[in-house]
Design brief:
3 helices
Length: about 100
């Protein structure tokens, strides 16, 4: 089984979105909560779909839990990196 790959920058709903990282779904959901609490919009991309909201029931019933791409709007990238405690300017792969 090959790992999912996601583009660093994508056009989604008419805006440019930047991939923060590719990580397991449960970890990405935790990051999304941190971002949301800080006022930053995020979206998860699985190999099958985009998810603006991730109902807990989907996760509990065995929805896709593999690696996902976690994206934020490019205009919110700096705020997202700050909230996640990351530094750097490229945006992709905030883990250091």
């Amino acid at each position: 089984m090959t790992a999912a790959t996601y583009e660093d920058r994508v056009m989604y709903q008419g805006d440019v979105w930047v991939r923060l990282d590719t990580l397991p779904r449960l970890l990405a959901e935790g990051w999304r909560r941190t971002l949301s609490d800080g006022g930053v919009v995020s979206v998860i991309r699985t190999p099958f779909q985009w998810a603006m909201v991730s109902p807990v029931i989907e996760i509990e019933t065995g929805g896709y839990l593999g690696d996902v791409g976690l994206y934020v709007p490019e205009v919110m990238l700096e705020e997202a990196l700050y909230l996640l405690g990351a530094s750097g300017e490229d945006g992709a792969g905030v883990q250091e």
